[in-house]
Amino acid sequence: MSIIKIINGSQFDEIVGQGVVLVDFNAPWCAPCRVQAPVIEKIAADFEGKAVIADVNIDNNINFAKRYGVHSIPTIILFKDGKEILRFVGLQPQEKLSRAISQVL
């Protein structure tokens, strides 16, 4: 079972609204997103119990992509208590994302 929260529908604000949450905006047809996925899985394991790692399929949740101005994928947004702290566009190394989460914790 994955420790990544799959965000669909109305739970977005509830999940992102509390604590540190890293949200990966992606799509199954996106090759760079598929390359990024194992990195996101590893980060989810590393930060289990400390931060929430979430996944948003923009094909199924276009409203969230529009709301946050996601024009390229993968886009990864780091939230703290509902506020966007950092944004990463394109493939990101694990070390960079882990460092960002650690600094916000």
Q: Could you list the spans in which at least 5 consecutive residues all have pLDDT below 50?
A: none
Give the total of domains.
1
CATH level-four homologous superfamily name: Glutaredoxin
Strand tally is: 5
Put simply, the count of helices is 4
Largest sheet: 5 strands, mixed
- Main-sheet strand order equals 1-3-2-4-5
SSE ordering: EHEHEHEEH
Percent of residues in beta strands: 25-35%
* Global structural class: alpha/beta
Per CATH, what is the topology?
Answer: Glutaredoxin
Task: Describe the protein in words.
This protein has 105 residues and is α/β, with parallel strands linked by helices. It has a single domain (5-104), classed as Glutaredoxin (3-Layer(aba) Sandwich), CATH 3.40.30. Helices cover 37% and strands 27% of the residues. It is built from 4 helices and 5 strands; from the N terminus they run βαβαβαββα. It has helices spanning 11-16, 31-46, 62-67, 94-104, and strands at 5-6, 20-26, 52-57, 75-80, 83-89. The radius of gyration is 12 Å and the shape is globular. The chain starts with a strand and ends with a helix. The model has no long low-confidence stretch (mean pLDDT 94).
